[in-house]
Design brief:
- The chain has about 150 residues and is α+β, with helices and mostly antiparallel strands.
- Helix content is about 25%, strand content about 50%.
Length: about 150
């Protein structure tokens, strides 16, 4: 049975700015250590990504997978695994909440990973935690360093 791991971080930027970075899949290889390629395969009526192919290299987990994204308002995005070579499950979400009068954002990242190869639950949860912590740190650094040309 898959269990989820979650963590939060506060970013010194408004939620809309944070979500703008989260939604810019083409630039993921610039700030996420694990995503080597990202390709938006389908978008919704608002132009937001609905299906994205990601080439991942997270050390022990190397995979080419496709995720389906669901956008809830302007402060939450979640995803589920559509297809993968190595993964059975890759479900997650980013939830944003304004803090400091709206000048900051608390970002909560939740992730559930299940691989097709046998792996001890303790090792899997540690891998999830490393992925989440790296993603949040990368997101914070990217947003707070300002937009790149």
């Amino acid at each position: 049975m898959a269990e989820h791991t979650s963590s939060s971080i506060t970013i010194e930027a408004a939620p809309a700015e944070v979500m703008g970075v989260i939604a810019d899949f083409a630039r993921y290889p610039e700030w996420t250590g694990e995503v080597k390629e990202a390709e938006v395969l389908a978008t919704d009526a608002a132009g937001r990504a609905e299906k994205v192919r990601l080439l991942l290299d997270a050390g022990a987990i190397k995979d080419d997978h496709t995720l389906a994204y669901t956008w809830t308002g302007t402060d939450e995005v979640s995803w589920t695994l559509v297809k993968s070579q190595m993964l059975r499950t890759l479900d997650g979400s980013y939830r944003l909440a304004p803090v400091a009068g709206g000048t900051g954002t608390e970002v909560t990242y939740q992730l559930t990973v299940d691989v097709k190869i046998p792996m001890l639950g303790m090792i899997k949860r540690k891998a999830e935690k490393v992925i989440i912590d790296r993603a949040l740190a990368g997101l914070k650094k990217r947003v707070e360093s300002g937009p790149k040309a």
